[in-house]
Fold these 2 entries.
Entry 1:
Amino acid sequence: MTDKNNLSPVERIKTGSNGLRGTLKESLLDDFTGAIREDDQTLIKFHGMYQQDDRDRREERVAKKLEWLYSYMIRLRLPGGFLTSAQWAGLHEIAENHSTGVIKITTRQTIQLHGILKSHVKPTIQNFNLHHLDSIAACGDVNRNVTCTSNPSESPLHQEIYELAGKISEMCLPKTKSYYDLWIDDELVIDRKTEEDPLYQDRYLPRKLKIGIAIPPNNDVDVFINDIALIAIIENNQIVGYNIAAGGGLGATHGNDATYARLASLLGFVDTEEKALKAVYEIITVQRDFGNRSDRKLSRLKYTIDKLGIEGYRTEVEKRCGFAFEPAREFKFEQRKDRYGWLQNHEGKWFYTVFVEHGRILDIEGYPLKSGLLKIAETGKVNFRFTCNQNLILSDIHEQDKGEIEKILKEHGISGYTDEVSALRKNSVACVALNTCSLALAEGQRYLPVLVTKIEPVLEKYGLQNEDITIRMTGCPNGCGRSPNAEIGLVGTAYGKYNLHIGGDRLGMRLNTKFKENIGEEEILETLDELFGIYSEGRYSEETFGDFSYRYLQTIK
Ligand code: SRM
Ligand code: SF4
C-alpha cells in the first residue's frame, strides 16, 4: 500500500473531486478558452472524455497567437460492443452534428467521436442519453469497457457471455451520480448515501482497469492483454465456469525498464457465474488496496501482481472471496482474426462482418461506407456489433431480410471492398495516434494503410500474400493497437520512426520482441523483405510467421 505522503497528484484530484464533479461546471461555462481547468482534465476522463487538440494545427495556431485548437473525444461505454439500428442512426446524426463526423470503432469494441468543441460536449452527451447510450467510466481510473467475443455466430453460448459483460460493467460502475447532474440534468444533487461507493471508495483505482471475456476457440478479444481475463470453459455445449487470469497490460515507456508489456497469468477456475463475478470484484479490491498510488507508470494491476507474486495475489483474492480457485481447466484458442463476410448462427440468423480499416467509418470518394451503413440502419433489420479488431458486424439478420442488406452492401461497395482487400490488411490494427492523441510520437491509423500497400508486393514476391500475418502499429509504446502481441509490431519512437518487433504468436498468447530500433520506412521494408525471404525458404509446414520469427530469434541470439 502506498505511503500517504507519497501519493501522485492525481490521487488528490480524485479524493477532492466531490464525486468526480470538481469544477467541471465552471470549466464548461468559461467562454474564454476551449480548454477546461487542469484538474478537471483528469476528472472528465471518468465521464468518458478526453481534452485533446488538433496537433496538425498547433504551429498555425501559435503563429496566429491563438490557443491550441482544443476539442474533446468522447468514448461510449458499450459492454460487448452492441448497438441497435436506431442507436446507430442516432450515433450517425450525433457524429454529423457535433464531431468531425468520423465514427471510430476502437480496439475495445466501442465507439469514439473526436473533435467535439467544448460548447458541443453537453449536447452530445444529452443526445447520447436520448438513445440510451452513455460514456460513464469509459476512461479514468476505473473499470473500462468490458469486451467479449464479438460474433454471436461463433457460439450458441455467446448471449451468456455478452450478458456477463453487461453485468460486470454494471457491477463496476462508480456510484456517483455526477455524470447525470453535470451532463444531463443541470441540477446538482449530491446524495452522499446513494453515492457511497464500496468498490471505488473516494479514491477510485490506482489506474485504469480492463476486463475481457473470451469463448474459445476464438480469441478475437485478445483476452490476455486485460487486467482481468475470463475464459469460458465449455463442456457438453454448456458454460461450466470460467478460467480467470489477471495482470495483463501492454503499456510501457521508452527508456524506462521498470515498465513492460505483460500477458495475464492464470489464477484458476471458478464453476459458477456468481463466483466469477465475486472473483472479479475482489481482484479489483486487491488492486485498489495494494496498487501503487505514487508512480502512475507502475500502477497497473500487472505491477501489483509482480510485486505480490501470483501466489500472494491469489491468496489475498481467495481470502476476500471466501472460496478458493480450482486449478485452471484446459482450453484452446484457434483464431484471433475476425471472420469476414456472411456467417449463420445456430438459430438461422445471418451476420456480416465488414472490414473497416482501423475502425474509421466515413465516406470517401468512391467508397461511401458511412452512408451505406446509415441506409442499412434505416431498414431497422440489423443490429450493429463491434470487434476488438476494429471491425463491424451487421448482426441478427433474418433469412428473409438478407437479400435487402446484401444489396445495400453491394451498392455502396462495402462487400466488394471487404472481399478484395489483402490478408495482411485484414489482419492489421493501428491506434489513433496523430492528429488527436497527445501521447503520439509517430503516426498510427493514418500511416499503416500506406505502409501495408508497400508491404503487399513484398509478400507477393515470396508467394505469401494469403498468409494471415498480424501487423499492428502504435504511435507510441502504450500499445493501444496491441502492437506488443502482434506477429509484426511497429511501435512509434519519433515522427516517421518505429521499433520493429517480431516473434509474437498469431493467437495472442506470446509477446513479441524488439528486433530493430528506431527505423524508417525504407529499413522497415528492407527488413521485412529479408525476413519474408528467410521465412518462405525455412518455415516448417503450416508454421506461422510469428512462430517462425520466434524460432529465428533464438537462432541469432
Ligand atoms: Fe489507449 C491512452 C486510444 C486501447 C493502452 N489511448 C490512450 C489515449 C486516451 C491517449 C491519452 O491518454 O491522452 C488515446 C486517445 C487517442 C485518441 O485520440 O483517440 C488512446 N486506446 C485508444 C484507442 C482509441 C485506440 C484505437 O485506435 O482503437 C483504444 C480505445 C479503447 C477503448 O475503447 O477503451 C485504446 N489502450 C488501448 C489498449 C488495447 C486494449 O485495451 O485492448 C491498450 C493496451 C492494453 C493496456 O491497457 O495495457 C491501451 N492507452 C493505453 C495506455 C498505456 C497504459 C499503461 O498501462 O501504461 C495509455 C496511456 C495512459 O494510460 O497513460 C493509453
Ligand atoms: Fe496514442 Fe500511443 Fe495509444 Fe497510439 S498507442 S493512441 S499514440 S497513446
Note: The chain has three domains: 49-135+339-421, 141-336, 425-556.
Entry 2:
Amino acid sequence: MTEKGQSAAGEQVRILNFIDGEYVEPIGGKYLENIEPATGKPYSLVPDSDQRDVELAVSAAQKAFPGWSRTPAADRSRILLRIADLIERDLDKLARAESIDTGKPLSLARNLDIPRAASNFRFFATAILHTENEAHVTDGVAFNYTLRLPLGVVGLISPWNLPLYLLSWKIAPAIACGNTAVAKPSELTPMTAYLLGETCREAGLPNGVLNIIQGTGQNVGSAITAHPKVVAVSFTGGTVTGRKVAETCAPLFKKVSLELGGKNPNIVFADADLDAAITGSLRSSFANQGQVCLCGSRIFVERPAYETFVQRFTDETGRLKVGDPLEKSTEQGAIVSKVQVEKVKFYVDLAQHEGGKVAVGGSPPAAPNERCKDGFFFCPTVITDLPVSCRTNREEIFGPVVSITPFDREEEVIHYANDCDYGLASSVWTQNLNRAHRVAEQIHTGTVWVNCWLVRDLRVPFGGMKQSGVGREGGNEALHFFTEPKNVCIAK
Ligand code: TXE
C-alpha cells in the first residue's frame, strides 16, 4: 500500500477483517467505500461484515481464551510492550493513515493519537505487573482472599473521532487482563485498526486473542453486543447508540461500560489568567475540529472579563488555519463526513434562529487547495447572545462550534453548567484556589479540569455522569471492569 491507501496499480486498497491472526475477506464479500474527508473521495474499501464474520471472530476468541488467560502476566506484559514499541516505530505510517482516514491534521495524529495508542499498551502492560489482591480476615473464623479473573470474550466498540487512540484504550486493558477480544472500529475510520492486526502479529500476540471485525454498527456492532458468548461490552460513541447497546446487554446480564457524548461547560472567572484561559479554550473548543467528546462547547465568562474574552477569543479563532490535513501548517483539518458537516451547518442555522450571533466562522472556508476542493471543511465558529438553555446550548454538535455566554455569580454559572443532560467533563479557569475547589465539587461531570484541558493521567477514573455514560475507564477502573472478582473464604 502507498501512503494514500492506493495499491501500486492505483486500485483502492481493500481493508480486511483480522480473525484468528489472519487477514480475511468478509464472508458476504461485500465492501463499503471509505471516504477521505479532506477530498470527499473514496480511497479504500472497508468490509461490510455481518453476523457470520462476528461468529467466526467470537469462535477464534473463545478458542484462544484458555491459553491466553493462563499466560503469566509477565509474558502478556512483554507482548503488549512490543506492540507499543512497534506502534512507535511505525509512528509516521500510522499517523498519516489516521490523518487521511479522519481528516484530522497530520500533526495532531503524530503528536496525540498515535503516541497515545502506544501509551495505552505500555500503561496496561505494566499496570498488570503491579496489581494487589485483597485479603480480609474474619476474626477467629475465616480468611478471605479475592481473585480477579479475566472474563472471557469481550466486545470493544469505538467511534471515528480518535480511532486508534480510543480502540487501543479498550484493547490494551482487555487483553492485558487475560481476556480475548472482538473489536470493531467505526466504519468511517477503519484504517489504523486494520493496520494494528499486522502490528499484533509481529509482536507475537497469539492468534485469536484480538480479532477485528470491520463494518457498520447495525450489522457488526449489534451482532457483537447481542452475541451470547461475548460476556462484556466496552463502548464509546453517541448517547443514542449507547442506549441501544445497554438495551441489548441488559437482558443478557452483560457487564457494560459506556463512554458517551458531552456538552461540556468551560467556565472562565474574571480572576483567571486570561492568556492561559484563551489559549486553553481555543484547544478545548477546536481540537480535532471540535470532534472530541471532551471539547468544551459551552463557554461561560464572568461579566467583567466577557467583552475582552469574546474579542480576543474570536480574533484568535479567526486566525486558526483551516487547511489540507497533510500540510504542516494546518491547525484545523476536515470534518469526518458529509453527514457530520451537514449536522454542523444545521446547528449553526439553528443557533441563529434561536437568537445567536455568529461572531466568527459560520460557514465552510474556500477550498484549501485543488486536492481538497470537495472535502468536508467548516470554519471554527463562535456564537454569542444565545439563550442559555436553547437547543444549541443543550445538544451535542460534535464539530467546531462553541457558544459564549456571560454570567454574574458563581451559583448562577454552576446552575448553567449542570442544567444539561450530559455530564462528561468541564473546565474551570480561576486563580482563586478556594473557588476552584468549591466549583469543582459542585459540577456534575466525571472530570473537572482546573486551569487546563485534556491533561490526561492514565491512572485516573475517566467517564461521565448522566447521559454521558455508565462506568469509568482508566487505571484500576479498567482493570476491574475487565476482570471478575471471586472471593475465596477459608475457614480457620
Ligand atoms: O456514533 P455512533 P456516530 C457522538 C457525536 C456524533 C454521534 C454520532 O455526537 O455526532 O455520536 O456519531 C457503532 N450497536 N459521538 O454515528 O453511531 C458504530 O459503528 C453497536 C461521541 O459515529 O455511536 C461505531 O463503531 N454498535 C463520541 C460506534 O458504535 C453500534 C465519539 C460509535 O458510533 C450500533 C463519536 C449498534 N446498534 C461520536 N450502531 C464520544 N463520546 O467520544 C453504531 N454502532
Note: The CA atoms of residues 351 and 392 lie 6 Å apart.
